[in-house]
């Protein structure tokens, strides 16, 4: 029986392929994730301040529940977004940290000293500015809100400035933002978690041991780790620590080396391709042989890449274009008519957050970085001048996603929370515009000449 000829694609297939190619290109443009995030926040603000604002509130309070035997779970949609979906966001952040510690900007302590010290300064200065405006102990709890950096927005705006920005400036900004994330995670765990329940620690520890055991046994599929991930999440939830931090723990536990194998994956792929070429003439046998060979190619392709890289590449588009915009859409909807900045010092909360981001971030990054270089702890990387560090500091003031997340942990009072969110939105927007304007000036006049 002769082999069947491949069927020509229809015009619909061709159009679909072209559209998907365009979508894939857009997804790989770093600035686009920031644009989508901004659109989601704008949509939330418009909806919350329209005549249909009650439906916005009602949407996020929709109950979500399920039960399995004696076990039952019931929360609203807002909880699902902030505590479940954001676990995936923290998972990707944890994997990014793991990769950078293994072979990135954090693998060499001498190289990491500058962004580490600059990040610490960029956390302390905004906190001090916030406290200076909020001496009342009732408002102190928001000190960490202006301390975080939104990686997607900051790197996205840097991408808008084009390839004229030296690569090392981007590396310093990315490293500083990652270290900011580490500090933010530690702050959430230490200062914004409820009383520790020891029984929850046992459950979380069991989830971690299950992950380590499965790694030792050689489980390679990421889906198999959903069960221990759920155990870890439930353990942290019961403990009182914010459960989304389970993502960071899982990210740090993700292997950075390819899976062990007796036969190299590339050799297995070659054998499978040869098997497909020599498939039998009989059509039923051919389909079985081809399916088996394709499964082997899929497994070998998976084994060629370290899990930390493979899983992060798979999840990153979902985090950047789905999870973070949904989070912004669920939490950026502040109704301005209901905000009373005169109540309970809300005005000072807003000013402390906004000025902490706008002024505190660049001030802390510049002062801490300058002192570190001056005292001989480190030196500026090649092609990174103090003008470039100023650009990093301005863009680090874009707090948005993580800042809103911390604000919701810091305040139960609706007035203070709304004021903090407005401060985050204003501070992040101004920092972004200042960073973009200064970046254009930097590209034109201040960028160091390449030697």
Automatic annotation (TrEMBL):
Signal keyword on record: no
InterPro entries: Na/H_antiporter_dom_sf (IPR023171), NhaA (IPR004670)
Reaction(s) catalysed (UniProt annotation): Na(+)(in) + 2 H(+)(out) = Na(+)(out) + 2 H(+)(in)
Its membrane topology: Multi-pass membrane protein
Biological process per Gene Ontology, one example term: regulation of pH
Molecular-function GO terms, alphabetical: sodium:proton antiporter activity
Keyword annotations from UniProtKB, A to Z: Antiport, Cell membrane, Ion transport, Membrane, Sodium, Sodium transport, Transmembrane, Transmembrane helix, Transport
Ranges annotated as spanning the membrane: 26-48, 77-97, 109-131, 143-161, 173-193, 199-218, 315-336, 348-373, 385-410, 422-443
Top-level taxon in the UniProt lineage: Bacteria
Pfam families, A to Z: Na_H_antiport_1
Primary localization: membrane
Localisation: Cell inner membrane; Cell membrane
GO cellular component entries: plasma membrane
Entry similarity comment: Belongs to the NhaA Na(+)/H(+) (TC 2.A.33) antiporter family.
Function: Na(+)/H(+) antiporter that extrudes sodium in exchange for external protons.
NCBIfam families in the record: NhaA
Name of the featured protein: Na(+)/H(+) antiporter NhaA
Organism: Candidatus Tokpelaia hoelldobleri
């Amino acid at each position: 029986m002769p082999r069947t000829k491949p069927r020509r694609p229809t015009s619909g297939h061709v159009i679909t392929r072209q559209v998907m190619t365009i979508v894939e290109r857009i997804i790989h443009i770093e600035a686009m994730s920031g644009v989508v995030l901004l659109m989601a926040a704008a949509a939330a603000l418009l909806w919350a301040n329209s005549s249909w604002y009650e439906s916005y509130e009602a949407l996020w309070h929709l109950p979500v529940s399920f039960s399995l035997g004696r076990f039952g779970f019931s929360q609203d949609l807002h909880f699902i977004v902030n505590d479940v979906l954001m676990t995936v966001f923290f998972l990707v952040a944890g994997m990014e940290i793991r990769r950078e510690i293994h072979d990135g900007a954090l693998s060499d302590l001498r190289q990491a000293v500058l962004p580490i010290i600059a990040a610490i300064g960029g956390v302390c200065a905004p906190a001090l500015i916030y406290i200076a405006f909020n001496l009342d102990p009732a408002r102190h709890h928001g000190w960490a809100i202006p301390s975080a950096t939104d990686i997607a927005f900051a790197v996205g705006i840097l991408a808008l400035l084009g390839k004229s920005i030296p690569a090392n400036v981007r590396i310093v900004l990315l490293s500083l933002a990652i270290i900011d994330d580490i500090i933010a995670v530690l702050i959430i765990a230490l200062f914004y978690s409820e009383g520790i329940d020891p029984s929850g620690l046992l459950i979380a520890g069991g989830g971690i041991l299950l992950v380590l055991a499965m790694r030792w046994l050689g489980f390679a599929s990421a889906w198999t780790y959903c069960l221990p991930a759920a155990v870890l999440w439930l353990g942290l939830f019961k403990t009182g620590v914010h459960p989304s931090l389970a993502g960071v723990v899982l990210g740090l536990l993700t292997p950075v080396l390819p899976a062990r194998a007796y036969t190299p994956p590339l050799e297995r792929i070659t054998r499978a391709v040869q098997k497909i070429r020599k498939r039998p003439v009989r059509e039923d046998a051919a389909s079985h042989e081809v399916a088996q060979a394709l499964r082997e190619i899929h497994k070998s392709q998976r084994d060629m890449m370290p899990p930390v890289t493979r899983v992060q590449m798979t999840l990153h588009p979902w985090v950047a274009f789905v999870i973070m915009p949904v989070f912004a859409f669920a939490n950026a909807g502040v109704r301005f008519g209901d905000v009373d900045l005169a109540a309970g010092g809300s005005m000072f909360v807003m000013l402390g957050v906004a000025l902490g981001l706008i002024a505190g971030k660049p001030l802390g990054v510049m002062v801490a970085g300058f002192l570190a270089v001056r005292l001989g702890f480190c030196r500026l990387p090649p092609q990174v001048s103090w003008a470039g560090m100023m650009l990093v500091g301005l863009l680090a003031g874009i707090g948005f996603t993580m800042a809103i997340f911390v604000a919701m942990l810091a305040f139960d009072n609706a007035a203070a929370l709304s004021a903090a969110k407005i401060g985050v939105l204003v501070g992040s927007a101004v920092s972004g515009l200042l960073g973009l304007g200064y970046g254009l000036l930097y590209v034109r006049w201040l960028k160091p000449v390449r030697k």
